[in-house]
Amino acid sequence: MSKRKIRVLSLSEKLKIVNAFECGKSRNEIQSEFGLPESTYYKIIKSRDSIKSQCSEGHGNIKRSRHSEFPDIENCLLEWIKQTLNKNIPIDGPLLKQKSKDFATRLGYQNFSASNGWLEGFKRRHDIAFKKAAGESRSVDQSVCNRWTEELPSLLKGYDPNDIYNADETALFFKCLPDKTFTFKGEKCHGGKQSKERLTILQCVNMTGTDKLPLLMIGKSKRPRCFKGVKTLPVDYASNTKAWMTKILFKDWLKNVDKKMMMKNKKILLFIDNCAAHNDLPTFENVKVMFLPANTTSQLQPLDQGIIHTFKRFYRREVVQHTLTCLEASNNHDIDVLLAMKFARKAWYKVSDVTVKNCFKKAGFCISTDKQEFIPEDNEVEAGPSNEDWAKLVCHEYTGDVLTPTFEDFVQVDDLLATAGEFTDDDIVHNFATTCTDGNDSEDEADQLQTLDTEIGVRGSGEKESQLKRPVHGSDGPDSHITSL
Q: What span, in angstroms and rounded, lies between the C-alpha atoms of 172 and 170?
């Protein structure tokens, strides 16, 4: 008697079954179409949220969700791998085995053996492959992008374009003038004098450009002197010692968004990258979070396709106009945080829905099967000061035979700035130890798979809890607040 061959479905195949179910097909129709036994059908439908989440993180080729005997060690190791890859440091098997032993010691394990068998199992469980690095920086895996673009319509199914959002952080040298452009350009802002001139801004907008959420600006000072006597700030404000996004800040921001969407009786789908500050998120009632595949945001994140760049063009134009006005009146042209808020708010709402729609389309976000043509933009790509105004400012700032920057140099001066911090080994252990000792071994453990190569910013050790201006009810702690408009 021959044994019946068992068919193992990949996550991508399971996603097709979930989509068929959500489109209203009956159980019998789905079982017949995909050749499923009844028990398998019910198991897939029960796990549909987990399947969607894993597919959105680029794990569509995985056929089984394998569980680990030491999940806390592996979670710590994954976090360390993400940070190490972000710094373009090559990783091999022996290094991973040694690092896993270090984490095992910190977590108090005495029976952990970083054997070759464990390493192979770790790589299979988390879809890791060692590849030869090409060049000095990591390149986008085009096959991952293509697979994501093919599966994206399935992830968007059931959502109106008005309810599909993208959020991302960008750094800003808010005081920077053209005479500082070549000093700052390429600066990664790990510390020092230049880092004092920076802010981090969180932007979020829907696919149609009809709903730009209020900016969240993150600075260094808890109460800048320029806030004295100000009752209402132009944008939301938060602070920490690095002016970076943190896990607590991002969770609090998402809680606020969830509350606003609940008040509107609106459920949204939010796409974000999986940087360290975006990890360990709770489940929200009205905001469903989807992670973009690792190391693909330069192609797949709508905000990176031109929305942030257009925002910065408008912001720099405000800086140029302000500086020229002050110079003509012989006034101080210094820019404080409050003035930067006003410029940023004005620049944000000047980005048109046409730009937003085009950037979402460029990232592959199309609801219909027909690829829509890009809508011409007449004013935004060229948004900036007039040639005359730019020449006036540059001539004032530069004297002698000096290479002068273009306005585009000025716009891109802070493109390489980090927007989030880096965890030390002790930070990583502290973040995961409590979660794992609580017994994180359910069927949904696969939901916590973390993709590698994520585009995270450089994180500094000693990251402090976030300080914000006015408290939000239900926050995680006394140091976790966001200022509302």
A: 7
